[in-house]
Amino acid sequence: MRVYLYEMVSGGGALLPSKVNRHDSCLAELDDFHQLPNLIFDGCLMLKQLVEIYLTMPEVEVWVSIDSRLTEFGKQLQDLASVDGKSPVVLYAEPTTPWAVFEECCRGADWTQIVAPELGRLLEDAAGRCVIAGGSLLGPEYKLLQLGVDKIRLHRWAEQHDVRMPSWGILENGESEFVIADSPTLLKPVCGTGGVGVQYATEAFPETGRWLLEEYVSGTSVSVAAMVTPKGPALLPPCYQLLGGQHGFEYESASLIEDQEHRARAWRLADQVFSACPLSESRGWVGLDLILGEHEDADVLIEMNARVTSTVEVISQLDSFVPYQWNKSTNLTELMLAAVAGN
């Protein structure tokens, strides 16, 4: 079985931001993902971890594509080897024309796993190109993908399914009917990733584009991922998130939640979300960002990530764990193999 792993930032799509003109994407002045070192570092680390996981799977051949400007990173991947001597097949893509290698790999693989930023709907674009090229996606079905890409769509879905999220409104071309309360309000890109571009709203709203206005909710930032297999979602151990960056909302690192109450609360809210999600045709990793408040009734969903997230670094280090819905121990490799093999 051949699995193609495509992490867009390191995999040959670094110059795609220059193709995106949406003013609410935080890409209006960004010509190259290489201008965001954190995204490049996180993307390379995530891809390397995925390669290492898939190399442990029997009878799985791993393909990856790498930005031609990251040849040293490509060599690092080629040096990786499984216990039986397997190494990944590394192909290089020109950043100005990344889709040529991408589409060829999608056609040649049994499964394609895409890790791409939601910025400017790049994740949605890559998934569509994979399907059109004849590839099979190891990821969320289209309805679930849209919830991860579009924050406004996610808020509307949450209201329909009684999932708690912060109060919100739409800012369009500088105007909004959302009433900013005494508590702080956040301004977010409608299609954003990793907290990039999130900031406190002020009276000087952007005069162009479509943005999300959202009530700021104080509390503890956590993430919970599910590995979706044909048997349904298996909730992985939740993690605390450390945020920072220019405005204090960009993802920096994660650590496993040891506090039993926080872990149980994160799992319960995540279980409610995934129970309402369209998952029948989905496979693989789906992540949620949550805020745990002072008490459980104040816990809220913040974001859905319909792709592998950076917390894979923490979860992949666990030799075994018991998923929320299961009564037996497993590990990330076994769950990912179950998603790939369809059992």
Description:
- There is one protein chain.
- With 343 residues, this protein is of the alpha+beta class.
- The protein has helices spanning 37-55, 71-78, 99-108, 122-132, 142-149, 151-160, 260-276, 312-315, 332-341; strands at 2-7, 61-67, 89-93, 111-115, 168-172, 185-189, 199-200, 210-215, 220-229, 232-235, 239-244, 250-256, 284-292, 300-305.
- Helix 1 links the parallel strand 1 and strand 2 (61-67).
- The radius of gyration is 19 Å and the shape is globular.
- The protein contains nine helices and 14 strands.
- The model has no long low-confidence stretch (mean pLDDT 91).
- The chain folds into three domains: 2-138, Rossmann fold (3-Layer(aba) Sandwich); 145-164 and 218-341, ATP-grasp fold, B domain (D-amino Acid Aminotransferase, Chain A, domain 1); 168-215, no CATH class.
- The strands form three sheets. Strands 9, 10, 11, 12, 13 and 14 form a six-stranded antiparallel beta sheet that branches.
Per-chain topology:
Blueprint: E1 2-7, H1 37-55, E2 61-67, H2 71-78, E3 89-93, H3 99-108, E4 111-115, H4 122-132, H5 142-149, H6 151-160, E5 168-172, E6 185-189, E7 199-200, E8 210-215, E9 220-229, E10 232-235, E11 239-244, E12 250-256, H7 260-276, E13 284-292, E14 300-305, H8 312-315, H9 332-341
Parallel strand pairs: 1-2, 1-4, 2-3
Antiparallel strand pairs: 5-8, 6-7, 6-8, 9-10, 9-11, 9-13, 11-12, 13-14
